[in-house]
Write a structure and sequence with these properties.
Blueprint lengths: L4 H22 L6 H15 L19 H20 L3 H8 L1
Helix pairs in contact: 1-2, 1-3
């Protein structure tokens, strides 16, 4: 079964954003346990989206994330988005919004 382009792109962006967040905040080599758990949860939610076609999570009407995980993802995406903008990496931010 072929994955939808949005699912693949969302997974790529999520992996990069969580990686930056963990590296800059937790100062670990690779992902810490908490960030790894958030990434696995986000990828699982992304892959199992019941809507077809899959909308952007921020535009979704049914929000399948648990409230605490949704808050963690918001915090990570905000931090990493600002991080990439400050470093001129608008391509990652563009992927997130488009």
């Amino acid at each position: 079964m072929k994955k939808e382009k949005r699912v693949v792109r969302d997974a790529k962006v999520m992996t990069a954003f969580i990686g930056v967040y963990c590296r800059e905040n937790h100062k670990t080599e690779g992902l810490c346990e908490d960030c790894q758990a958030v990434l696995e949860y986000a990828l699982r939610r992304n892959d199992k989206c019941p809507l077809d076609p899959k909308p952007k999570c921020k535009d979704c009407k049914i929000h399948c994330y648990k409230p605490e995980m949704r808050e963690k993802i918001r915090k990570i995406m905000k931090f990493s988005g600002i991080y990439y903008i400050k470093r001129g990496r608008l391509d990652w931010v563009w992927h997130y919004f488009m």
